[in-house]
Input
Amino acid sequence: MGKYLVKRLLLLIPTLILVCVIVFALMRMIPGDAVDMVVYNYATNGQVITRAEAEAKLGLDKPAVTQFFIWFGNMLRGDLGNCLFRGDTVWSVIRAQLPISLELALLTFLLSLVISIPIGLYCAAHPDTISDGVIRTLSVVLASMPVFWIGTMVLVYPAVWWGFSIPLTYVSITQNFAQNMRMFLVPSLVAAVTSAGMNIRAVRTMTLEVMRQDYVRTGWAKGAGEGRVMFHHAFRNALIPVITLFGGSVAGLVGGSVVIENMFNIPGIGQQVVTALNNRDYPLAQGCTVVFAVFVMLINLVVDIAYKWCDPRVSLE
Output
């Protein structure tokens, strides 16, 4: 296990370098640039600045390759630079807003587990029944619906019909737990429902496949209870493909927080990415995107390790 972990961590290095190159290049391909924003801001304040002066001020007067190596070298030393249009460093913004995004992703993941695993196991225990058919149909519908559409419906119709609106002012979980949950529970549930659609079908399919094996039929023949057969024999042996799907959904939740946070005004790192892109704040957008990429890579590593925990026969070497 130790040798495998060292090898996987070393493989993260070239992956991270490739991510940095792609992120840096894509940021420079966005129409418009930070120089235009600086010139415009000076003009609105009654001041005049030339493009050459603005480029020198932002460090954009150097070739793109030089800019990349300067940024990448500083990042390796733990310095992601300063935000172009606010007085904070990129790290200070990420430290302040990343916990909010992680809270949203964790709550969404837990709700997705609570929804998809029991329902998927129920469908596997009662295949081809009316309830199984209804649940499978609903899961396909939920998996097909874009999260922003469901979020829009949740925001609009309760407000119109019942005058209910979700709190839009962020309160830390340490300050007021109930108020924090009022703000986070609905957007987490919206994201969890859309991801649970595919997860329900995966749990059902994998568990049904395992239940056809001889050792499961032997458990039934010995008189083992339904709960023991489903959880101890069937579900655990069906976990490997299910873990793969759940791991991918967690990675999607980290990146998908951009949509949810902007819809429900949650001041996380996803909302900050959109603001940085609108302002052409290159260092902030690049730093947030790299943090997203690192989390996705680490989640994939955790998923691979989980294979060994679920099935000792799996070799990681």
